[in-house]
Request: fold
Amino acid sequence: MSDVGTTPHWTFVLGSLLLVLLFGSLAFNDYRARDAAWQLEIETHGELQSLALRSAQSNQQRQADMVASALAGNAEVLRQMRRIDGALRAGATLDDARIELALQRLQAALTPAWTSMQRHQGLQLQLFWGDSGLTLLRMQQPERFGDMQAARRPMLQQALRDGAVQTGVEVDPLGASSRAIIPLYGEDDRAEDVIGALEVGYNVLPDLAELSEQLAAGLALVVNRAALQAAGLDAPSGVHLHAGSDWQLTGHSATQILHWAQAGMLPEPESGMVLRLLSADGRTYMLNQIPLQTDHQAQPTAPLAAALVWRDISSMQAEHQGAEQRLLVKWSLAWLTTEALLLTLAFLLQRRLSVQRQHQFAQQQQSRRQQRLYDRAQKIASLLPGMVFQLKRFANGRYAFLYVSEGARELYGTDPQRLLEDA
Reply:
């Protein structure tokens, strides 16, 4: 009887344990699915940012290509470059009167284009001569000329050596820019060798403040100072990404990046495309790192420049956290409801078993009372002379003994049980 009484308790304990495991696994799977959806949403936003930024970079590159192609086909530019080529091949120097006059005419021919370029983020407009890449004219720095650039600049070297148009990203003291280098020939039919090259460079991205407003996000540019110094190039001025880093910030549209850089929270640009959630001023931001690879490097060990884009996602994160809390409440309520049903079932089962025990106990009590009365009647009958019996006549005329005492054995020599069976 004690085992029967403890059965509901064990049922409730085992059922509760199974419910905890069941609802725990369901809640965990639901949480994982929601977390995967959140990660997918973050990655989607990162991809959209990356596409928008690369589209802006591509527009700058296309603009550099178009301007460079137009200027390389300018008749006056070709005429003066060929005059300079003839004079230098004849042994003249850059301070020769003929070359100085040609350079003045080149500068005059390029001034309208350079003025227009400056209004649209133009950074470089340059002319080079010979295989060594002798600088003839820098429109952005007219006072600097006469230095050899090909050995330090793979894009320029390849354009002068192979006679192929080169495009890509390069970094110099003016910053990261999208370059287009067009080789110039001694004859229009290109039967002659390459005599020089014309280079156009636009800022690798449009104005950061304007682009930041268009993307509704913060923007920053970082450059690889160590890689530039190893190549013999001067790096632009800027703020180091963090202590001991070879990377430095050269421009930014919002100040959160300075806090992250100082705290060493920014990813290393060598790691490539990176998405990271960062906090500043009580807000949460999604930081997207986008390397700006150069076209002339087939397998670069590290990009020369990278863009950092960060967007305030505090409202998105608050919604995600709210959804997680609602998820916890939902499964908690489901578990509690099921536990309540299980408790009700255990209570009903306990009550039924209690009623059954009471009924069994009452039956046992009644059976014992009946047995005592029967035993008492048997004793009384055995003391009486003769035979004590109870005979019943049924409606169909049949008779049957309901009780026969032991006196039947003495009077008739018949077993009382036989009379009960055969009457």
In short: The mean pLDDT is 86.
